[in-house]
User: What shape does this take?
Amino acid sequence: MIGWIDAQAGASGDMLLGAVVDAGVPLAVLQDAVGFLGVTLTANPTTRASLGATKVDVSTPPAQETRTWADVRAMLPEGRSHEVFERLAHAEGAVHRIPADEVHFHEVGALDALADIIGVTAGFAHLGLTELHCSTVALGSGTTRGAHGPLPVPAPAVLVLLDGKPVHGGASPHEATTPTGAALLATLVTHWGPLPPMNVARTGLGAGGRDPAEVANVVRLVLGNPLQGKGSAVLLETNVDDLDPRLWPHVLTQLMASGASDAWLTPILMKKGRPAHTLSVLCSPEQVAQLRAVVFRETSTLGLRESTVAKHALERRESTVEVGGHLIRVKVASLDGEVVNTNPEWEDVLAAAQALGRPAKEVLQSAVTKASAPAPPTSGTATTS
Assistant: This one.
């Protein structure tokens, strides 16, 4: 099962808690995980902009204390919740320009925030998702109040935590994403982009504290099974008009060697009639940062466009055929069990043609014919005329 977080209204610890409970994780699972803190979780139905949702509240003892990252680290077992707080400590340290161990967490280190992080990580562990996707995250605008006075929104730590992730201001002029929510997303999300191809199984809505007029203040968690043969990929593109064209073959070779699924050039005409090329690179979300760096290092571009696209791939296998005593690898693609494409490896075709002294087109045709021929019946199998 995979999941997708719709964060168009932002994300906070309590919103994510509500989403996992609303999606079917028993509250007892979360309560067991946070029990050592001495806090109590309660879940209640509510509405935001007329949408039904679940609001999870954390009841804590009246005494609260300021904690350093060292204090929090001593309380937490190794695992995802530990990783979330470590990210948070380093982000707050970067903002205040102090070592992470010297960060005093104030609100974030309070028991309710600890419960949010431990409960959310326990909830996602219970779901056992193989992938967790997330939309562009609304961060909010304006100001909020911290322990030492007013802070700009988005909070500085939120921007550090979501560096390199897709974000925008959002519709509501309030704090939409908290540092706790940002740290959870930065740790748990494996892919960023729109709703991936899936058969939807269930949806959970977690409510935030406000009910603003501008947007339904909920996090939506959509769960489902990925569509067979489908997935998401990222398309990187840039227009270049000032690169020596002799460099393009090397650029494409470097991109493929660095993990691109495909890379290609399209001739275009830019403003003032300047000839140029559009460089397109298709890759998995995990390869984006590496391939982005290759484009910037190897070309003269100053920027890239990035978009998420749906990808549908045929089932494929590799076989070999013999032409004139030379083995040629062949990719065989099937649709619903029926072979629809056979593609001999071109380098093998060329090597065989040169060795045999035959035209490459003849060797290619022989390889396709042999690869497309039905397999002979196995011994003991009845055949019909």
Observations:
- The longest helix spans residues 80-96.
